[in-house]
Amino acid sequence: MEPVLIVGGGPVGLTTALLLARWDIPSIVFEAGSGEVQGTAGSRAICFQRDVLDVFDRVGCAEAMIAEGVTWTTNRTYYREHELFTVTFPHPGKSAPPPWINISQSSVEDYLAQAAAKQPLIDVRAGQAVTGLRQTESYVEVATAPGSTVRGSHLVGADGGRSTVREALGIEFPGRSYDDLFLICDIRADLPFPRERRFFFDPVWNPGRQVLVHQQPDSVWRIDWQVPPGFDPVAERESGALDARIRKIVGDRPYEIVWQSVYRFHERVAERFAAGRAFLAGDAAHLYAPFGARGLNSGTQDAENIAWKLAFVRHGWAPAALLDSYDVERRAAAAENLKVTSATMEFLVPQTAEQRAFRQATLDRAVTDQA
Prior knowledge:
Layout: E1 4-7, H1 11-22, E2 27-31, E3 47-49, H2 50-58, H3 62-68, E4 74-79, E5 82-88, E6 100-102, H4 105-117, E7 122-126, E8 130-135, E9 140-144, E10 149-152, E11 155-157, H5 164-169, E12 175-188, E13 196-201, E14 210-215, E15 220-227, H6 233-239, H7 241-250, E16 256-269, E17 274-275, E18 278-280, E19 286-287, H8 295-314, H9 324-348, H10 353-368
Parallel strand pairs: 1-2, 1-11, 2-7, 4-13, 11-18
Antiparallel strand pairs: 3-6, 4-5, 8-9, 9-10, 12-15, 12-16, 13-14, 14-15, 16-19, 17-18
Helix pairs in contact: 1-4, 1-8, 8-9
């Protein structure tokens, strides 16, 4: 049986392969990175919702993820020196899986990679970058960096925001990128507010911008600071300014920096998610600002949608036209996610005088308005 070709050995690509294997469909996963396909350092995506945990359960990974992950129960929101509101979520009881967990993307990738390594229908080829592709009415063929070609029945491009597959298919990736930067630090520390998420608007120690604090497993906390364009993370650390930032959260408690990164938000959706026998999934198809955890969660839903449809077509249980619904359904989901995250970013990082005035008025009123 011809395999499905999957470009990208990250969580979306591996989930696609594992889901296909449940339907007895073989796949080849091409991962450009050298060495074994495994999670990399740092938290990156950290919040995974129940419907996505359901998908991970179907591929045999959810139990270990849930055992490692944490579920925060209290959300505190601050504006300057004011605590605007606190939301406490009810205990989920014995629900399985929980409504969400916080766990680092690197851990999720490791669990998926371990499951893929045990699956004989999945052939993971690390260190093999796909450099081009061509397709006919009956198959897809890719060229790889070692100079070989591989043929499959279909192809799923899950190779990230700079997707080689998307470029090879000639699919545009319209949208915008924000100038403001965000500094992330994963720190290990024992903080006195376990199971809380804290969001700070315009604190005096990061004026005009935001700070988000998220709990992770093993006493690790992720802190996101919005920082101005031109921010220099090396100078920040060497000057002691980074320590001063962290001290505003941890006080005089000891801490350890586990990981540090600076990133820029992007809001982009591919003009189409399919071309012939090739399909885009995850960041290759859409990029969102992370507020609302719609990136990897949505990418996992892409994987589930395309996997069962490919399986039904491959087994002859449905006509090939079923695959047309992937673009229709997942682009509709992407459009909704983009609408929500764009509105969120307009409030968090206003780009016009009108947006800035609206945000200021809203936050000022929130201090006294109890309605």
